[in-house]
Amino acid sequence: MAHMDTVAVATMPSMMGWGVIDLLLVLAMWGVMMAAMMLPSSIPMVMSFASLAHQRRVRRLPCAKAGVFVLGYLAVWFAFSVLATLAQWGLLEARLLTPMMVSATPRFAGGLLIVAGVFQLTPLKRRCLTRCASPIGFLLNEWRDGTLGAWTMGWRHGMYCVGCCGVLMALLFAFGVMNVLWVVALSIYVMLEKLLPRERWLPFAAGGLLLVWGIAVATAP
């Protein structure tokens, strides 16, 4: 988190006139932040992968294959970081985001909350969450041998997790991309979604809360 704060401070002064250095700094900020937020919730999947690789007696160390799996997973979140960086630039140009990386208007912040709330209630959310939060089921269905196979499985797991959590990450634009409390809260929520029992009541509860919150923020005088 301290590293992310350092990157943020470095990028703030020139946010409204981006050059190549600004772009790379913001991309680095997003990349580090996504890794810090999403790696903890992937630990059960990575441990299950290493265990299954050991049972299948892979020729190379299971830990090495697990490392390749993680790299594939992080590659997807890096691609997401590229999109988030471009989105941040566009929102700054449209004056919807301040140079301090916070929503410039209550309506925009409320709109993000409403969109996230609606998404929490969709079949796509449930489908991606099921794949993202069920390590054994995912690995048995998606297993591929070899180093390329480990990368591919990590990449596919990352795609499901982006499908599950990507819209929630957009909420960082509502209350501050570098708001540490907001970052921690989202990280904890993502982990709870994956770890709580299979009834999956949490996404529905969160969706309802986000909808009410978004309407309240967007319509506040």
From TrEMBL:
Keyword field: Membrane, Transmembrane, Transmembrane helix
Transmembrane segments: 20-47, 68-92, 104-121, 160-189, 201-220
UniProt protein name: Metal-binding protein
Species the sequence originates in: Trinickia dabaoshanensis
Lineage: Bacteria, Pseudomonadati, Pseudomonadota, Betaproteobacteria, Burkholderiales
